[in-house]
Amino acid sequence: MICLTGDVHHDGLRTNEQLFLAPRKISEVAITLDYVRLCGKYDVKCTLYVTGRTLADQWEAFQPVTASPLVEIGGHTYAGLPQGAWVKLLSRLSGEKACSHSSSPGTCSSQKRDVARMLEIAHRRLDKPIVSWRSHGLVRDRHTYGILAGAGIKFISDDLNWHQLLPERLPQGLISHPMNVIMDHDHLFHAHRNPEYVARQQRPFPDDPASGSYTIEDWGALVEKQVRAIEAKGGVATVLMHPLCMFAADGFKTMERLLKQFSKFKTIWASETENYLTPLSKEFNQNAEK
Ligand SMILES: [Zn+2]
Ligand SMILES: [Zn+2]
Q1: DSSP state at residue 137
Q2: 152-168 per-position pLDDT tens digit
Q3: How far is the CA of 5 from the centre of ligand 1 (A)?
Q4: Are strands 155-156 and 175-176 parallel, antiparallel or unpaired?
Q5: What is the mean pLDDT of residues 224-245?
Q6: 163 alpha carbon – ligand 1 mean position (Å)
Q7: Ligand 1 centroid vs 135 CA: distance in angstroms?
Q8: What is the CA radius of gyration of the chain?
Q9: 185 Cβ partners below 8 Å, 6+ apart?
Q10: How far does residue 280's CA lie from ligand 1's centre (Å)?
Q11: What integer pLDDT is reported at residue 98 of this predicted model?
Q12: Alpha carbon 88 to chain centroid, angstroms
């Protein structure tokens, strides 16, 4: 099984990658629509974790994405943890790009407010509740999952773990299906992530099993190899391919090649990973690790 996922951000967030693409006058939402069309060409399901502001501020442009029968919409925070004015100023003065998002998810009460706003706008726009979530920048703390579970979220995909091949239930009640295939953005040379930027960047996620950066072609080959290995073991391969990264790296060329491969297997949404949650999943994952 393959669970293809992507994260989508509102243009107002002005991430480093959005700013890099700004001269091309194409928005992340428009790129996402092309991504979904390509998934449609190969009949591959995808779960898109979308910031609430995308639904609030860019609904007209985004609505066709939600109309696809292949797409599940999940939450990705309402506001996208924008950096404070102070960090932005320091970054401008030093000439060095700061990370696009804050390194803290905020206080417990501000997280509660953000989650409630995300769920409210999603319900209003989509006419049904969302149940799947990924933390933006994978930034979360000890409060986050309790808040999400209390608000009705059931599925989370924040962990980076190549040994966990089946979903498992967390103590807070959420079902976790980690990204168990090399993720795209932080391992790809693309957009602003040129060799100089990569050499300066500190390792963003301490639990990330991968450390290097690759050309889009080499990254694509790694993804294909890992997905095939997980399929051979009967696991659920959760793949992160951001619309923006796939577009910026090579105009969807590698993505299309991967979709062609993915279409040979069963593809599922995050909200369907529950079907692969078995009492044996812990044992299965431990065996896969050996
Ligand atoms: Zn994000
Ligand atoms: Zn990227």
Answers
A1: G
A2: 999 999 999 999 999 99
A3: 11
A4: parallel
A5: 97
A6: 23
A7: 7
A8: 18
A9: 17, 193, 240, 242, 245
A10: 32
A11: 65
A12: 24
Pair type for strands 237-240 and 132-133:
unpaired
Question: In the sheet that 237-240 helps form, which strands lie side by side, from edge to edge?
Answer: 168-169, 175-176, 155-156, 132-133, 71-75, 46-50, 2-8, 237-240
The number of the ligand nearest the C-alpha atom of 49 reads 1
Ligand nearest the Cα of residue 190 is 2
114 CA to middle of ligand 2, Å? 24
Stated pTM of the model: 0.93
Q: How far apart are CA 156 and CA 164, in angstroms?
A: 14
Judge contact between 257 and 227, C-beta under 8 A.
Answer: no
Distance between Cα 219 and ligand 2 center (Å): 13
Distance CA 2, CA 266 (A): 6
The environment of the single-atom ion ligand 2, i.e. residues with CB closer than 5 A, is 17, 185, 245
Phi-psi region of 258 (alpha: psi -120 to 50; beta: other; left: phi over 0): alpha
Query: Is 2-289 a CATH 3.90.1150.10 domain?
Result: no
3-state helix, strand, coil in the chain (%, to 5): 50, 15, 40
Find the 127 Cα to ligand 2 centroid distance in Å. Answer: 30
Q: Are strands 168-169 and 175-176 parallel, antiparallel or unpaired?
A: antiparallel
Strand partners, 53: none
What 3-state DSSP class applies to 90? helix
CA atoms within 13 A on the CB side of 199: 3
In this prediction, residue 289 carries a pLDDT of 65
Q: Of 82, 74, 77, which is closest to residue 112 (Cα–Cα)? A: 77
